[in-house]
Amino acid sequence: MKFGGTSVGSVKSILSLKKIVEAEAGRGPVIVVVSALDGITDKLIATSHMAQQGDEHYREEFEAMVNRHHQMIDTIITDDKRRVDLFNNVDQLFDQLKSIYYGVYLIHDLSKKTEDTIVSYGERLSSHIVAAMLKNGIRMNSRDFIRTQKKQGRHVVAMEETTELVRQAFGNIRETITNNHVYVVPGFIARDSQSHETTNLGRGGSDYTASILAAVLGAEVLEIWTDVDGFMTADPKVIKSAYTINELSYVEAMELCNFGAKVIYPPTIYPVCVKNIPIRVKNTFNPEHPGTLIKQQIDDDLKPIKGISSIKGTSLITVTGLSMVGVIGVNRRIFTSLAERGISVFMVSQASSENSTSIGVRDEDAQAAAEVLNQEFAKEIETGAMFPMQVESGLATIAIVGENMKQTPGIAGKLFGTLGRSGISVIACAQGASETNISFVVDGRFLRKSLNVLHDSFFLSEYKVLNIFICGIGTVGGMLLEQIRSQQQFLMQSRRLKLNVVGISDVDNFTLDRDGIDLDRYMEILRAGYPANTEHMRDEIVKMNIFNSVFVDCTASRQIAELYQTFLEHNISVVAANKIAASSDYDSYIRLKQTARDRGVWFRYETNVGAGLPIIGTINDLCNSGDKILKIEAILSGTLNFIFNEIAADVPFSETVRRAKEQRYSEPDPRIDLSGTDVIRKLVILTREAGYKVEQADVEKHLFVPDDYFQGSLDDFWRRLPELDADFEARRKVLEAEGKRWRFVATMEADEQNPADFKTSVALKEVPQDHPFYPLEGSNNIVLLTTERYKEYPMLIQGYGAGAAVTAAGVFANIMSIANI
Ligand code: ADP
Ligand code: ASP
Ligand code: MG
Questions:
Q1: Catalytic residue, candidates 12, 682, 701, 740
Q2: Atom of ligand 2 at shortest range from CA of 36
Q3: Cα(763)–Cα(534) distance, rounded to whole angstroms?
Q4: For residue 461, what pLDDT band results from cuts at 50, 70 and 90?
Q5: How many Å lie between the centroid of ligand 2 and the Cα of residue 268?
Q6: Ligand nearest the Cα atom of residue 232
Q7: What spacing in Å lies between the alpha carbon of 5 and ligand 2's midpoint?
Q8: Range 273-299 average pLDDT
Q9: For residue 40, which ligand has an atom nearest its CA?
């Protein structure tokens, strides 16, 4: 049973360890391998560097480490005698360590050997504490039986010697260990077989110590106790929706660990795999959770991909030339020369033209690797057969892993398709013939996004995430947030969709949070955000580079509409309640649509016409299926319809406008409605969706408020409005007597013989009682579509055409269509 740094790092966890181990010891012999207290190895190293640089503060750091261990002992060891003994042991170690640090401080020298000695104290201390805390703990000194030898500048385990020494040290453990005794072994540390100096197995190496012991002694199981519920589909610190994998094969675990799943130190798998000893990864903080079982053969699992892992800080070295095909043994020379310098290569990709080979190495090895290769191929470079090595750093390597990939076609296609749609370009890639791993290299800045988007698209996640920016929290935006808030739980539970609002903005502020904004208190959070600034907001959103994201525009602002192009270019979908973009000049409208198509994202604006009514979608469906829209007649202004329904002997025209504003049907500036601008925009959008090229200026206007009312300030307008009342009332009386009503009608009519020839107009019309527009109540909208297929009886869509709730719901529906669940 190996317990990592966090498992021995706090009082709570170490007491949990005690319970777990003592329960297990009652069932059979146990060896416990421990890491240093969480963070201590880093501290030991950092402090040694301070001492070397003559920084006095190293003493404080040292004292802090002493205190942390002392406090831990004080709290967990209640038996007086045991505590005194333990303090003696521990303080003896600290005395030595203090002297070593002082030596480093005095001579300003920190050799590898000294550093290795210093870091060994972490595990030496923790193992003393754990042994003293356990009921029958016997501390073993791992430097007596874990031996290393130096190979290419690295310490590697001297396996034969170690095997022999472990057998001697533990004898026949099954028979000799009695009375619930538990052996406690410091992980990580070792001794050089020749010089007998203290060495170690590399960062994270305690896992390896445990694996070696398990393998040599024929353990039943190797348990890795850590701070997460097992081996997960991805690093849970990066992917919120990562979850525990029940079972993994050794091969899968090895591939994931090699590519950075640090939950198990990579060399750990091999020794137990050879002996067919299963590994169980468990959580010290949640021991009831079954965790992950790693073994040879796993039960059928249909998922092609088991997990994703990644390594940051990788470099790509490209060996290339014009006539490399003629250079003999290029690959042998590349790998031999690198191996001689002890540089490990974790990825290779070679074009079949043989003209270029890319190899992945760690950033810190990149310079050396390039030098070695430039030397190796100096002659070829000189003659011009090859180019000097190209080094690209700051990259990240990602691997998707699963043994079932073998049987599943299309995985690579899906992988690269998903990345492409998210605007992530793949710099190099490799797939082994074993088909259990596809690895690829991306710009380091795209790592988080790549991991998220892949995790999502391979259904590794138990739920899908849609990240939403909401711009504008007035009538519609505010209602939308409310609707999202109240639907969040339902969508998560029954649709497995997580709607994550990652940004909110209004005229005063904007706020962004990739973890999601708490919608119960978004106002407070928004007010603490940045001051509103459109360019700043745009740049921050682009910089966030978040996957599966939608920008939702609930404003009526031109400035905001001008951001869509940039967002679409950065693979952010756009849902607009704002009509400006879709009704602006034709070329920009087409460009937005084209960009969305090229990027594999969406530009949707169903609520631009008829609020929540399915008008644009219906026109699209008709056209896509080959129908031809010949005529559109529509009442598209909820506000105007409301006004002409409200107007009466005792309700003058100016009062109806005021009511429309109060009841929030009208645009913030009602002149947009009265001037026909709003209806013209809508008609332009419908006409374009029907496949006609039209601009706002092409629409004929027959208005009912004189032009000069639209020129001055808004205040002027409100002041002057009652001047129109008398005239309206006179005309209204005549109309009433004729049994007619006013309707503001938008029309698009194409010449049936020559459909490219079409006319658009908006006009106040007087409609008789038998006309379908006559009874249209309140702020409702109606659209009559005459098409080649719906000719004799046109298609009719009717219902609320304005209002916060239905418009927000229409926006919501657009968002859901993007989530595509
Ligand atoms: P310990 O100190 O117990 O050895 P580590 O910090 O070395 O613990 O390893 C556990 C950590 O590994 C987790 O906290 C998690 O952040 C990280 N990790 C990375 N990839 C994975 C993965 N696929 N599954 C689980 N944990 C992972
Ligand atoms: N304490 C060592 C480290 O931090 C070894 C380990 O924890 O496994 O790397
Ligand atoms: Mg570890």
A1: 682
A2: 1
A3: 36
A4: low
A5: 13
A6: 1
A7: 7
A8: 96
A9: 2
Ligand 2, pocket-test mutation among 7, 8, 41, 123, most atoms within 8 A of CB: 41
> Can you state the percent helix, strand and coil of the chain, rounding each to 5?
45, 20, 30
Tell which one of 188, 199, 208, 226 to mutate to probe ligand 2, the residue whose CB is within 8 A of the most ligand atoms. 188
- Please determine, for residue 546, whether its predicted confidence score (pLDDT) is greater than 70: yes
Q: pLDDT tens for residues 486-496?
A: 999 999 999 88
130-181 residue pLDDT tens: 999 998 899 999 999 999 999 877 899 999 999 999 999 998 776 666 667 8
> How far is Cα 700 from Cα 679, in angstroms, rounded to an integer?
12
How far apart CA 661 and CA 776 sit, in angstroms, is 20
| CA 385, chain centre distance (Å) | 44
CB-defined site of ligand 1, < 6 Å = 4-7, 35, 204, 226-228, 231-232, 234-237, 261-263, 307, 309
Structure confidence at residue 666 as a pLDDT band (50, 70, 90): confident
Residue-wise pLDDT for 38-97, tens only, equals: 999 999 999 999 999 999 999 999 999 999 999 999 999 999 999 999 999 999 999 999
What tens digit of pLDDT does each residue of 249-269 get? 999 999 999 999 999 999 999
At residue 821, the pLDDT reads 66
What confidence score (pLDDT) does residue 26 get?
86
List helix spans (H) across 461-571: 475-495, 522-527, 534-544, 558-561, 564-569
What pLDDT does residue 421 have? 86
Question: What is the rounded distance in angstroms from the CA atom of residue 706 to the CA atom of residue 271?
Answer: 89
Ligand nearest to the CA of 257: 1
pLDDT digits (tens, 9 = 90+) for 369-405: 999 999 999 998 998 888 999 999 999 999 999 988 8
The DSSP code for 191 is E
Structure tokens at 550: 């939608």
DSSP 443-491: EGGGHHHHHHHHHHHTT-SSSEEEEEEEE--SHHHHHHHHHHHHHHHHH
Distant-in-sequence, close-in-space partners of 386: CB < 8 Å, separation ≥ 6: 319, 320, 321, 322, 324, 327, 377, 380
User: What's the Cα-to-Cα distance from 692 to each of 582, 586, 697, rounded to whole Å?
Assistant: 13, 10, 14
Is any atom of ligand 2 closer than 6 Å to the C-beta of 645? no
Nearest CA to 428 among 438, 436, 437, 418? 438
Q: What is the DSSP string of 688-735?
A: HHTT----GGGSEEE-SS-GGGGTS-HHHHHHHGGGGHHHHHHHHHHH
Q: How far apart are CA 79 and CA 229, in angstroms?
A: 33
Q: How much is the pLDDT for 178? A: 65
Q: How remote is the CA of residue 136 from the centroid of ligand 2, in Å?
A: 25
Question: Average pLDDT, whole number, for the chain?
Answer: 93
Q: Whole-angstrom Cα distance, residue 674 to residue 744?
A: 10
Pocket of ligand 2 contains residue 230 by CB under 6 Å? no
Dist CA 501 CA 513 (whole Å)? 8
Ligand 2 pocket residue status of 205, Cβ below 6 Å: yes
Cα distance between residue 580 and residue 592, in whole Å: 12
Residue 705 has which token pair? 């408020």
- To which residue do tokens 């090859």 refer? 386
- pLDDT score, position 781: 94
Active site residue 682: yes
CA 404, CA 758: separation in Å to the nearest integer? 57
Q: Cα separation of 478 and 458, whole Å?
A: 34
Name the residue type at position 361: V
